[in-house]
From TrEMBL:
Organism: Rubrivivax albus
Family annotation (PROSITE patterns): HIS_KIN
Catalytic activity: ATP + protein L-histidine = ADP + protein N-phospho-L-histidine
InterPro entries found in the cross-reference section: HATPase_C_sf, HATPase_dom, His_kinase_dom, HisK_dim/P_dom, HisK_dim/P_sf, Sig_transdc_His_kin-like_C
Enzyme class at the top of the EC tree: transferase
Gene3D superfamilies: 1.10.287.130, Histidine kinase-like ATPase, C-terminal domain (3.30.565.10)
Lineage start: Bacteria, Pseudomonadati, Pseudomonadota, Betaproteobacteria, Burkholderiales
Record protein name field: histidine kinase
UniProt keyword list: ATP-binding, Kinase, Nucleotide-binding, Phosphoprotein, Transferase, Two-component regulatory system
Entry GO MF terms: ATP binding; phosphorelay sensor kinase activity
EC number in record: 2.7.13.3
Alphabetized Pfam families for the sequence: HATPase_c, HisKA
Domain Histidine kinase, first and last residues per copy: 125-341
């Protein structure tokens, strides 16, 4: 939400987002003063004066944006982060208002992207360090097996089996960084239907997979197999969490697609984005790992590799997108956002 104002707060220009959030027509906004839109007008007036007088280069504070009663119930005062800065015109100032929730999400996305980049480098280095001696260990165990009595062969078999298991883990860690993207036209609903068919084949009873699609979503350029794997990994995690409810016969996963408009992903603004929700009615993500679920080798279940969500995040980020998670007992939602053309 953006407005261009005079030093006294008189609004000269307001964008459409500000109209939508206040419930006021642009003409009405441009006849008023920006400080009158907030619950604490004096704070805005003081900040405008300080920036106009060059006492500070920009001013920031948090406040509540007043909204028109015409928006109806559920549209009360909106918490916003306000930024006031100078413009190229000496008599005008720029006022930006960012929803606190949105700002928190942007900060979280930025941290996630930085963490993912660090994880990627760590995984590649660690995987290579493990891979090099692993072949030697396996080969030595095979040679040893030829020399020792048959009754001791089971011990070398354990070594070989565990070396093979580690090799599979290393290959999974390196897989997304080895294989080049195969880019083509992607229909997100074909991907959801493929995942739905695979999951229902595995769980024919006790699980409903509900479709809630916006069929107007256009195709976009992407790697179909990567996106299938990303969605499948999230849905598989959900089915594992839903084990008890599947046994009871009331487990449910919802695949919901929508179009989001004017979305910021990784500091870049996009006019349109795919907004895919994968929702389940399971017990929720354990609070102890809720902030770390996309990190490698972090799992909420015994025997889990902790790679499914890491790989899903990697594949989505390769499409300039992001994943986040909102989880409470009885409702967990993974949200994938990918820019649309």
């Amino acid at each position: 939400m953006v407005a261009v104002v005079s030093h006294d707060g008189s609004c000269q220009r307001a964008n459409a987002a500000l109209e939508d959030q206040t419930g006021m027509a642009r003409r009405a906004l441009e006849r008023g003063r920006v400080q009158d839109w907030l619950t604490h007008p004096q704070q805005m007036a003081d900040t405008l004066a300080a920036v106009a007088a060059n006492e500070v280069t920009s001013g920031r504070f948090e406040s509540l944006l007043l909204r028109s009663p015409s928006l109806g119930a559920g549209h009360g005062e909106l918490p916003v982060h306000v930024i006031v800065s100078r413009t190229d015109w000496p008599d005008l100032l720029l006022v930006e208002m960012i929803e606190i929730e949105q700002q928190t999400r942007l900060d979280r996305e930025e941290r996630t992207i930085e963490q993912a980049a660090a994880n990627k480098e760590l995984i590649r280095n660690l995987a290579h360090e493990i891979k090099n001696p692993l072949g030697g260990i396996r080969g030595a165990a095979q040679l040893l097996q030829l020399e020792i009595p048959q009754q001791l062969a089971e011990y070398t078999q354990v070594i070989i089996h565990e070396a093979d298991r580690l090799q599979v883990l290393v290959d999974r860690l390196l897989a997304p960084h080895r294989r080049p993207q195969v880019v083509g036209d992607v229909n997100i609903h074909e991907i959801c239907e493929r995942v739905r068919a695979l999951v229902l084949a595995e769980f024919p009873r006790g699980l409903r997979v509900v479709r809630d699609y916006d069929t107007s979503i256009p195709e976009f350029r992407g790697d179909r197999e990567q996106l299938i794997q990303a969605v499948l990994n999230i849905v598989h995690n959900a089915t594992q969490a839903l084990g008890e409810r599947i046994a009871m016969g009331d487990a449910e996963i919802v695949l919901r697609s929508r179009v989001a408009r004017q979305v910021t992903i990784g500091k870049q603004r996009f006019r349109l984005a795919l907004d895919l929700h994968i929702q389940d009615n399971g017990p929720g993500v354990p609070e102890a790992i809720r902030d770390r679920i996309f990190q490698p080798l972090v799992s909420g279940r015994d025997g889990g590799s902790g790679l499914g969500l890491t790989l899903a995040q990697t594949f989505v980020q390769q499409h300039l997108g992001t994943i986040d998670c909102d989880s409470t007992p009885g409702r967990t939602v993974f949200r994938i956002m990918i820019p649309l053309p």
